[in-house]
Design goal:
The chain has 147 residues and is an alpha/beta fold. Helices cover 39% and strands 21% of the residues. The longest helix is centred in the C-terminal third of the chain and has 15 residues, at 110-124. The relative contact order is 0.15.
């Protein structure tokens, strides 16, 4: 089985450690590199061949669209998922316009983050990472659609 190769980018080492620990519990995912600044990011993109970059583009409190642009330029086939505690509507729209797959809040439950990473891998590499079909839950089992 192919594992989803993930590159973590965040300027807070504790966040990277937590994310790496959480992702390592998944048998189909592997954190292949970690970076805190753009020079480390470039090295990781060159040597680790990630499928997905999970990035907080806020470095020292300032949004760095340049880091996102750098990923797109250096590795156009890589899927970008932004995980941040700060992003207003305009910033989210701009990142999505740039090609970011998803912009997520750092308060997201870890199991939902893992699902979103898996979904991102499947969206861009469907033959490598097919998603299993999940049944659609019925909110009220007494109310069924008419046949």
């Amino acid at each position: 089985m192919t594992t989803l190769r993930i590159l973590l980018v965040d300027d807070h080492p504790n966040i990277r450690t937590f994310l790496a620990s959480r992702i390592s519990r998944e048998t189909d995912m592997d954190v292949v590199c970690q970076a805190s600044i753009e020079t480390e990011l470039a090295k990781c993109l060159r040597h680790a061949s990630p499928h997905v970059v999970l990035i907080d583009p806020y470095i020292k409190g300032e949004l760095s669209f340049a880091m996102v642009e750098s990923i797109i330029k250096r590795a156009p086939d890589v899927v970008i998922v932004v995980l941040t505690s700060v992003a207003d509507t305009w910033q989210r729209m701009e990142m999505e316009r740039m090609g970011v797959y998803a912009v997520l809040n750092k308060e997201i439950a870890s199991h939902l983050l893992v699902e979103k990473l898996r979904e991102a891998g499947s969206a861009f590499f469907p033959t490598l990472f097919p998603l299993e079909a999940k049944p659609i839950p019925i909110s009220n089992p007494k109310i069924l659609p008419a046949s």
